Amino acid sequence: MAIQVGLTLGNYKLIRQLASGGFGDVYLGENITIGTQVAIKVLHGNFSPQAIQDFKNEALTIGMLKHPNIVPLLDFGEHAGVFYMIMEYAANGTLEDRRSQGRPIPLVTVISYVKQIAEALQYAHDNKIVHRDIKPANIFVGQKNEIMVGDFGIAVIAHSTQTMQLQVPLGTPGYAAPEQAQGLARPASDQYALGIMVCEWLSGMSPPFPAGIKIPAISPAVEQVVFKALEKDHKQRYPRIADFADALEKASNPPLPQAAVLPQNVVAPMQPASPPIQQPLPLDLDMLYREGLKAQSVGDLERAAFLWQQILHHTPFYQNGTLNLLFRGLAPARIKEMRRQARAAKAVGNWQGEINLWGAVEYVLSEQSNIKYSEAQQIRMEARERAATARRNLQNEPLYEHAQLLLNSGNRSAAKTTLKMLWQQAPSYGDPLGLAKKAGLLVYLDPSTKKSLRSFLFLLSLAGMFFSSITLFVSLVLSLLSPVLNWANNLIGYHRPASVPGWLFVVLVIADFFFFVLFLFTRSNGKDKRA
């Protein structure tokens, strides 16, 4: 299904596109029920089951993180094969939008940015999550000008140092740490990217930076802190990204003069109290469990699976394994609904939606489920075959659209030729807009209908040959026996001659020949040609 402005996904409507990157497009959306604005990230392009799972992982990752400096996930869903996430809309844009090329940002502003970003990333690191794509375009400005980290598109659960090999994207060139090029992303990689951003803000230049860069108008102490975060060896950087933020703030403040001794009975003026630091919100597993039960009760199985997957990701043996059994029990009904939606998507020519849905079916089968192995294998084969057919249809979609343009311009002959070419290359493409009749083709039959009709004609040819041959044989026997029959008739006084009309022989021979040709035709075209 083509993703375009105005499309409705569940309870949300796409208003305009905000950005495109990674494996998803971001749109400004609107909650149809209450009219609030949200950011909607939509999976796009031709994706394998693994890519769809990566998108779900992103939703799962963001759903786990509850922090005031992380863009919150509001919802996650799927509509007609299109997967999407609903996030809070940052109306003030990103730090990339606020940057002026060639103009440094004041150090005090940079310190404010770094403290908030570091708090969010330290919280993610404490939850064993590495962002791996920190850059100004992924740092959003909230309604109260708070800084929020977003787009955990390639975030992964950090491995132990013995199993750091990560076969995933490498981040954004210029910001990615050296170890990311080797697939060895770790928390220190986010620190390196933040150090690059600090260098960018303070110098007014864009990465990559030349070796030995000097940042004007800052103290050597600040420069030393930044360069420590940019060490090529991750072990030489600060142990934690929070340590980097603290060291940067400390280096930016000159030492305070020694406090003067106040006379007795003189009270020092009260300093204004610092605003309380907003603490990260804990992950409420019981709330997620109850919401999952509620979603299951109303038939929203995908939402129930998504919520429970968050719990199992955090606590695999939640409620002594009872939740794991509930989650596995959702698989048969989820697959049944996905197969229904995939067929519906095929009926309307939504090839991308069909591909995504069959991919989702295959992913659910890869999870532990209550489906028998033999049945799972059968469903898996069906999913792969139908997804492959849908991919071929998607590749030939431009031909169908071209035929429609030719019809709109009045060129029926060229449209007819294009449609014939399309259905020769992709027999299962279908005719969702009914172009065959408009182009002057007698009728378009999809492969399943063709197969049924061919089977009917094959049986008809067998039956026709059988009865016409029997009738012809009986007629020949009667013709040969006609002298004997006439002699017998004369004996009994019946003078009507017994003979077979010559025209009957001709009709029977023609009928027999016709059914024989029909038999050969159905046999020679008995198998659909697969593109």
CATH architecture of the largest domain: Orthogonal Bundle
CATH class of the largest domain, anyone?
A: Mainly Alpha
Could you tell me how far the N terminus lies from the C terminus, measured between alpha carbons in angstroms? 22 Å
CATH superfamily caption of the largest domain? Transferase(Phosphotransferase) domain 1
At CATH level 3, the topology of the largest domain is Transferase(Phosphotransferase), domain 1
Low-confidence stretches: 156-169, 255-282, 527-531
- In total, how many beta strands? 10
- Report the major sheet: 6 strands, antiparallel
Number of domains: 5
Structural class estimated from helices and strands: alpha+beta
State the shape.
elongated
Quickly count the helices. 18
Helix share of residues? Answer: 40-55%
Helix and strand element order: EEEEHEEHHEEEEHHHHHHHHHHHHHHH
- The average pLDDT score comes to 78
Strand content: 5-15%
- Strand ordering within the main sheet: 1-2-3-4-6-5
Report the radius of gyration as a whole number of Å. Answer: 36 Å
